[in-house]
Amino acid sequence: MTRTALPIPAPTHANRISRLALLAGIAALLGGCASFSPDGGVGTAQTIAFSELNKDVVKIGDDASAGSAKARVDKLMKAPLTADSAVQIALLNNRGLQAAFNELGIAEAQMVAASLPPNPRFGISKLSGRFEIEIERQVAGSLLALATLPARAEIARDRFGAAQLRAAEAVLKLAAETRRQYYRAVAANAQAAFFQEAKASSDAASELFKRLGESGGINKLNQAREFAFDAELGAQLAQARLQQRQERERLVRQLGLWGDDLRFKLPGTLPALPPLKTVKAVEAEALRKRIDVQVARAELDLLAKSLGLTQATRFVNDIDLLGRRTYDRGRSVLADGDVEREAKRSRTLELEIEIPLYDFGQSRVVQAEQTYMQAANKLAEKAVNVRSEAREAYTAYRGSHEIARQYQSNVLPLRKIIQDEALLQYNGMLIDVTQLIVDARGRILSNVAAINARRDVWIAHTDFKHAIIGGGLGAGGGAVVASAGGGGDAPAH
Q: What residues does 132 pair with on adjacent strands?
């Protein structure tokens, strides 16, 4: 494209060049200059956090807010953490969330900047010689930016609204990840405590077998079996303690803790199973509440408005209005030797337009249209995925709840009966130590699986809730610490 300057006859009155200032004032009225919000734009995130999570969210921007948040965190950490208190600590103390709020502040600053009229450009030049001097003053401004200011301001407000929804999504995501990690950490505590108790029982049995072996009351084969299993159980305990430390550190990162705050306490067992709820219209509720769907819709509306602006300005990219005032002063020497002085003032208005000789805007329009269709297809895909995720999360929640109840109601009671009866038969010399160890080993594995099943219920419960409101689905309950392999037997417990 080329730019062409069209001179306009100068106004007769010198003050007419100040009409640019008047146009800027009109643009300010048309655009409705935005201002910074007192809460930094986090009001949407705070509302959603309170309504969906019953939790508070603050943006830490000064010493007072930082001190208040720290005081609340310290108060919550005096007692053993619950899932709810862990989530509240993360929302107050996680620096990644504060960085998301800073990103929201940047978006708000961009919105305010986009709502302001374009700045005029002022220039002054001076050209002097031996007998003459020329001073030129000019002011220029973009008429196209001025004319499109209301549309651009509206787009900027919509873009800021989408940024507010993304900040709310970050809140929900952090809450979901913290709650999942809390249950993993507590389950690791429960497994470590269980293996510690089992190891204590095994150590006592090994000491008894050692004495019986010394007195000849038991053969070396059975004695070796008990010693081998005790050693393998020690390895499983070490593995459970390693998992316990790892899960705790992952929770620490979610909570944003360091220093003396690392001495927080976690319960040793998971809470009882939550009541199973039957939820109707899961898909419709997910489509209505999911934050990521709302973000996608907002971005699609934003692209639609941007496409309209692109269509409106496809033939002209820029129009500049230039006002120039020139002062010329010169001297000339006459034949008689006298010096004659002369001065001349002139005023000019120029309209500078970019003419599309090579590109009539088709490329920009096609790019905008394809960008819009891409967003529309992604929104349609997300709507399909959200429905499926909601169904999958609900299925996982119900299935894991049924599995945990099976362990709690059937498997563990039967394992206890088997071990008690096996111990009675062993004392009556009806079975040997091999069968006793095998039955005890089965009970240990069942207890570990029951702990994992209860953990998975709480994680599935979290996944289901956030499949409805947003925040992302989890990756499941995690790896089982104890395994059935290894050829070892379990101690009595």
A: 330
pLDDT of residue 180: 95
Q: Do 187 and 447 contact (CB within 8 A), yes or no?
A: no
Q: What percent of the chain clears pLDDT 90, i.e. is strictly above it?
A: 28
> Each residue of 411-460: pLDDT tens digit?
999 988 888 887 887 776 666 667 777 777 888 889 999 999 999 999 99
Going by the DSSP 8-state scheme, the letter that residue 259 receives in this structure is: G
330/324 Cα distance (integer angstroms) = 20
In the chain the domains, ranked by start, together with CATH numbers, are 32-116+148-317+356-469 (1.20.1600.10)
User: Is the CB of residue 302 less than 8 Å from the CB of residue 159?
Assistant: yes
Question: Helix 149-215 vs helix 83-93: angle between axes, to the nearest 10 degrees?
Answer: 130
First-to-last C-alpha distance (Å) of the chain? 85
CA distance 91 to 119: 40
Query: Could you give the angle at the alpha carbon of 101 between the alpha carbons of 96 and 106, nearest 5°?
Result: 120
Distance CA 220, CA 226 (A): 10
Per DSSP, 409 falls in state I
How many residues can be counted in the chain?
493
